[in-house]
Amino acid sequence: MSIDKLSVFEEFPPGKDQGRIVLWIKKMYRSISRKINFLLSLVNSGFVEIPADDVVPGADGNWRWRVDGADLVLQRKISGTWTDTAIKMFSTGTITSGDITIFDPTPILVFQDSNSLGAASVGFIEWRDSG
Fold first, then answer.
1. With the C-alpha atoms ordered 36, 96, 109, 91, is the resulting torsion angle positive or negative?
2. DSSP 3-state helix, strand, coil percentages of the chain (rounded to 5)?
3. What are the Cα distances from residue 79, in Å, to 54, 58, 60, 128?
């Protein structure tokens, strides 16, 4: 199946007039840009809240990602207080749950090839907790 053209809500304007193209882009992305601006305003406030279905923002039981320096912390609202869940995403790419490292981008297994007739050494880096 081939794709002949991109499906759009408005027909692309004929001619090469830049004003027509700008108006077309504004029509196409007006609602999308409002949503993007809303999300950016949340991010600029230091957190993005994830409310459950039919629940107002800020209610108990909601989740949010909070910015802590360059790291992200997952929190849940319990009895009117935002509480850390101990799940953190660090700017280095590491993800932890309490003292347990769930994901660490540094290599666990290191392979070094000495290029001398196939001889090689394999080194192992021990697991470590983030605490």
1. positive
2. 20, 35, 45
3. 18, 11, 6, 35
In angstroms, rounded to a whole number, what is the distance separating the alpha carbons of residues 4 and 32? Answer: 24
The confidence band for 79, taking pLDDT boundaries of 50, 70 and 90, is very high
Instruction: Tell me how far apart the alpha carbons of residues 60 and 98 are, in angstroms, rounded to a whole number.
Output: 22
Confidence of residue 3 (pLDDT cuts 50, 70, 90): very low
**Residue (of 112, 108, 101) closest to 125 by Cα position:** 108
pLDDT band at 36 (very low <50, low <70, confident <90, very high): low
